[in-house]
Amino acid sequence: VPMTGVQASLYQQLRGHLAALKLTAAAEHLPSVLAEAEAEQWSMTATLENLLAREVEATEARKLAGRLRFASLPTPATLADFDFDAAPGIDRKLATCRYLESATNVLLIGPPGVGKTHLAVGLGRAAAEAGYRTYFTTAADLAARCHRAAIEGRWSTTMRFFAVPTLLVIDELGYLPLPGE
User: Which of 1, 13, 15, 165 falls 20 to 30 Å from 81 in CA-CA distance?
Assistant: First the structure.
């Protein structure tokens, strides 16, 4: 349906308002949402809710992408890919991230090749998806960064960095001997 001059002007003003408020996803979806609203005869409230829901989805996706980038997970492993049947001692409730709310440590112990890293990465991904700040590192990298920070006089800054994540995953803890200092 072609727009009248007044409708076109209001449409452009609305796009301008969305751009000024940096609601880019809403601005991008505006034409399709308005077309669907007209076709389905949505109320103004339903139309506005649908438009803002698109913006919220895009914002949440950007936040998750940022948390996953920060997490530095080494693989795309997920808990859904983990074979819990092959590891009956693992509590499936770990996926709920309740251990984070109670600040409970989780220690995965076992021989090489049983899936400890896969499970750790999966827990890290689940935590990031649940909204928690997560960071993955190896014990050797953590020790090296702390040692370098101490030598360079950046110890407190480095400790603040490692204190920020709600979940700090330290992999390969028992594989290599760590320096005493």
Answer: 165
pTM over 0.70: yes
Measured between alpha carbons, how far is residue 81 from residues 35, 115, 122, 126, 137 in Å? Answer: 40, 11, 8, 12, 21
Closest CA to 70 of 162, 177, 159: 162
Distance of alpha carbon 161 from its chain centroid, rounded? Answer: 17
Contact 169, 134 (CB under 8 A): yes
Angle at 31 between CA 23 and CA 47, to 5 degrees: 75
Each residue's pLDDT tens digit, 118-165: 999 999 999 999 999 999 999 999 999 999 999 999 999 999 999 999
CA–CA distances in Å: residue 61 to residues 1, 9, 64, 132: 33, 32, 5, 14
